[in-house]
Design a protein that fits this description.
Number of strands: 6
Number of helices: 3
Distance between the termini: 17 Å
Helix content: 25-40%
Largest sheet: 6 strands, mixed
Order of helices and strands: HEEEHEHEE
Strand content: 25-35%
CATH class: Alpha Beta
CATH architecture: 2-Layer Sandwich
Length: about 140
């Protein structure tokens, strides 16, 4: 099964996007670089939100990223996940940012393979706040094969 087919089977929604203020996914050479995509969930991890809720929020971000990549490239096939940056709206003592961002990584591993094209570099960091109070923001870099 191809990455595109796997994503569709998992229920990822692919819809045409209207260009906005910023480019959600831009091609530079053989790379697709995304803007940060934010979760629908709002709030602060460790102060009202659980790690599991953050995990699902990060997964939501990754699904939105895949839609933007699809809009820029026309398919998820032939891509390699290179790098993720995960930003977590965190209480001062919250230390499970990496477990939150696993939600995005796990979805990409499921679609692209954990040991193949989905095996990526990643950073997971905590922030005192994120735009509009969202719980999670994730950006990604893909290589076009």
């Amino acid at each position: 099964m191809t990455p595109q087919q796997k994503a569709e089977q998992l229920g990822i929604v692919f819809e045409k996007q209207t260009p906005g203020y910023l480019n959600l996914c831009i091609r530079s050479g053989n790379q697709l670089i995304t803007s940060g995509h934010v979760s629908t969930l709002k709030g602060k991890l460790g102060a009202g939100l659980t790690t599991q809720e953050g995990y699902e929020a990060a997964k939501d971000c990754a699904a939105k990223i895949l839609n933007s990549v699809w809009n820029a490239h026309g398919t998820l096939d032939g891509l390699k996940v290179v790098k993720l940056l995960g930003c977590v709206n965190s209480a001062p003592d919250f230390i499970e940012q990496h477990l939150v961002i696993n939600g995005a990584s796990d979805l990409l591993h499921e679609i692209f393979g954990k040991t193949g094209d989905g095996f990526h570099a990643r950073s997971a960091v905590g922030f005192v706040s994120l735009p509009t109070g969202v719980a999670v923001e994730v950006e990604a870099v893909f290589e076009v094969g």
